Amino acid sequence: MPIMPNKPIMPISLIMPTSPIMPIMPKKLKLMKQKLLFLILIFLPLFSMAQQYTNSYSKAEFKSATKWAKHNAPWTKNFTKGKPNLVNMVDFQKQYTKNKAQWDALFEWLQKTDLLALTKGKHDIPGTTLTASVQDDTNKPIAERSSESHRRKIDFQFVVSGTEGFVLLDHTDAATKQNCEYNDKKDVIHYDYDPSKALINETPFPRFNIFFPGDWHVAKVLTSKKDQHFRVIVVKMDYVD
Question: Are 160 and 166 in contact (CB under 8 A)?
Fold first, then answer.
């Protein structure tokens, strides 16, 4: 079932949308379905809904990771420039615990760096093997963007100006399937999917998304905003088994 409200909804702690989510649907149906789904969202178990679009975990793991993040995640401590938007907290807890030094270095660099003053392109993050890609880009229709997921890297994407549109694919839909072999050199897999089942999230600055291997996603998708331009900082973090 597509997620259709065009107003902010309560955060989902497994995946945390803190900005509007939109459907791909005819405009004349938008208001009616928006009101209906808003009521559904109030009563629908948020845990179950979230797991349509990300890795599936038990309720106990979900609860534990949510509690852990409130007191241990970098954005609850020294990082004050932004907040999480779409983040699987169970995956983040696992990866942060296994690779704390790299994650701390990332957030420290983001905190200390004037991200709007950076030139477009690649920038090494001192003291690490990480590279930040500064992208000034424009959202486009979903048909013009490719879906993807990764195995060795985690996509960290921090919107620092404007609003970027993102899509998460529905894991439970039969139409969602891998359409190519895994490209080891590029660390990427692409997918076929039904756009009507996609969850589309508008990510405004200063919010960041973290896409783990179980988050099959599309970036730079058209939003409801008049201005489709944005700046995003993309960093490929190591995925630790």
Answer: no
